[in-house]
Specification:
This protein is of the alpha+beta class. 41% of the residues lie in helices and 23% in strands. It has a four-stranded mixed β-sheet with strand order 4-5-6-7. The longest helix is centred in the last third of the chain and has 38 residues, at 419-456.
Length: 517
């Protein structure tokens, strides 16, 4: 490469650099080239973003086929559960796929009836309806938070001739939950109500819900009998909630009156979960009866009186009549009757008592001995009124005074706030930080001061002048000048200046510019 080449200066400066600096510059250049390459590749490829996630394999395949037909670039990831498209076409792709009915949610819905099949039998139509209903329920369940996918199986028995022979419908739901997701009891009950209200003849007792691990989230068979495990656990939970609510109310009231840590309360309630139905008939009084129907019948007879014959016997039979046996005159007979049917006033009342009424209540309150007897009497009346104590049903209330443990009182005692003490605590926390900051500032100032002193210190070599001649003495020879010991750093600088004068000149110019500033 000749001296007139434009790269001659660059090559000369490259050769003047130390070996370590050459390797560092080469690494920087190589890294820059690699970064630029990846930036170019990334900018040339389209920016793909996720348009659909949580897809079933059949939905991913259908979406991929539709995107290939439309000529849209796509990428399938997440094990086939996500589809990515260019960022500037996300909205357009979603609209077109929605028009095509994609994604279907991994199940066939009621769109199975969009195409009419005139050759389908009644059995096939029933099977298609069941498949469509299962698919629609699965789609609805998949929209819930924490649910990644679901499958629904419905059994709809044939309609029986007699009602007592009709079998109930049943349903099973398999939930695929998202990682780390847990459904609450309210959410599981919501899924149960969704399924039971969507299938004709399906009751809560016929629904079973499990998760992907086989754990039973809801078993409807435990809800049929009031003595089943599921029903009993719910009853105990309701009873416990009622007891805790009363206990919290009493604790809040007593804490305001006697102070914290000076009362202990225990509430036990016995609830009646029997469902009772009563029918009562009430009849109105006779005075207020309303006539429904009235029937009147009368009978009248008028005519000649009958002729009396002789004494019965053989003589009379022979036609011989006794003297004076003939009488004369008219007779009249009249009879009348009236029948009135009154409408009976009847009132039928049906009363259904909801389960959960209180059969018996027991409340135990223990007060600290610091509470006076007058306060105890007043608190007893207040507690009885607060819990709705009814002695006729056997409720019991016990209020006693006992010495409390001092540790319990100390645990509830809040120390008085001291403003100066709080400031001192904060100051103790800030002192180490302030000490570190001050030490850093002092060290920085000390280093700057030392640097300035070294830069401004004059460099000189001590030289001994010749000793002048004294009176009467001949002048002696001059003493040789004392020279400082050679500095190895200085020798290295001189050698570097001889080897690379251009680099040393650049460094000196840089120092001069900094001093001018």
């Amino acid at each position: 490469m000749g001296p007139g080449s434009p790269f001659a200066g660059v090559l000369e400066r490259w050769n003047d650099l130390p070996r370590g600096r050459q390797l560092a510059l080469a690494g920087i250049v190589a890294g820059t080239i690699v970064v630029l390459y990846f930036v170019f590749v990334a900018s040339s490829s389209p920016n793909l973003v996720v348009a659909f996630s949580g897809l079933a394999p059949e939905d991913s395949a259908a979406i991929a086929d539709q995107l290939e037909k439309d000529g849209v670039a796509y990428e399938i990831g997440g094990g086939g559960s996500t589809v990515s498209v260019p960022a500037n076409k996300v909205a357009e792709v979603r609209i077109k796929l929605a028009q095509a009915g994609l994604p279907k949610g991994g199940a066939i819905g009621l769109e199975i009836f969009d195409k009419t099949n005139f050759g389908a039998t009644d059995f096939v139509q029933q099977v298609n309806f069941r498949r469509g209903l299962e698919g629609e329920l699965a789609r609805s369940i998949n929209t819930l938070d924490g649910v990644r996918g679901s499958r629904v199986h419905i059994v709809m028995p044939k309609e029986a001739i007699f009602k007592e022979d009709q079998q109930p419908a049943t349903a099973s739901v398999l939930l695929d939950l998202k990682p780390g997701a847990n459904l609450s009891q309210d959410q599981v009950r919501g899924i149960t109500n969704l399924v039971t209200n969507s299938v004709e003849g399906l009751h809560m007792g016929g629904v079973t819900i499990i998760d992907e691990t086989g754990h039973v989230l809801f078993d409807g068979s435990t809800m049929d009998s009031p003595f089943a495990t599921g029903a009993t656990s719910n009853q105990l939970e309701l009873q416990r909630q009622y007891e805790v609510a009363l206990q919290r109310d009493l604790e809040s009231t007593l804490t305001r009156v006697v102070g914290p840590g000076r009362s202990a309360i225990t509430v036990r309630a016995q609830l009646n979960f029997d469902k009772v139905t009563q029918d009562q008939d009430t009849y109105a009084a006779a005075a207020s009866a309303v006539p429904r129907s009235s029937t009147t019948s009368s009978e009248t007879f008028s005519g000649a009186a009958a002729t009396a014959g002789g004494v019965p016997g053989t003589g009379a039979n022979n036609g011989a009549a006794a003297a004076g046996s003939t009488t004369g005159g008219n007779s009249t007979y009249t009879r009348s009757s009236t029948t009135v049917n009154n409408e009976i006033g009847r009132t039928t009342t049906t009363t259904v008592k909801a389960p959960g009424s209180v059969d018996r209540l027991s409340v135990s309150v223990v007060l600290d001995e610091s509470v006076t007897a007058a306060q105890e009497a007043s608190l007893t009346a207040a507690i009885a009124a607060a819990v709705g104590l009814d002695q006729t049903r056997g409720d019991a209330l016990s209020v006693t005074r006992l010495p409390f443990d001092a540790s319990v009182k100390d645990a509830f005692t809040v120390p008085a706030a001291n403003g100066l003490g709080e400031y001192l605590q904060y100051l103790k926390l800030l002192l180490p930080m302030l000490a570190i900051v001050l030490a850093f500032v002092l060290i920085s100032l000390l280093l700057k001061s030392l640097a300035k002193r070294q830069a401004t210190a004059p460099s000189y070599a001590p030289v001994l002048a010749p000793v002048p001649a004294m009176a009467g003495l001949a002048p002696g020879p001059a003493l040789p000048a004392l020279e400082a010991a050679p500095d190895p750093q200085e020798e290295r600088v001189f050698k570097l200046a001889d080897a690379n004068p251009r680099a040393v000149a650049d460094v000196v110019q840089t120092w001069m510019r900094e001093e001018d500033r």
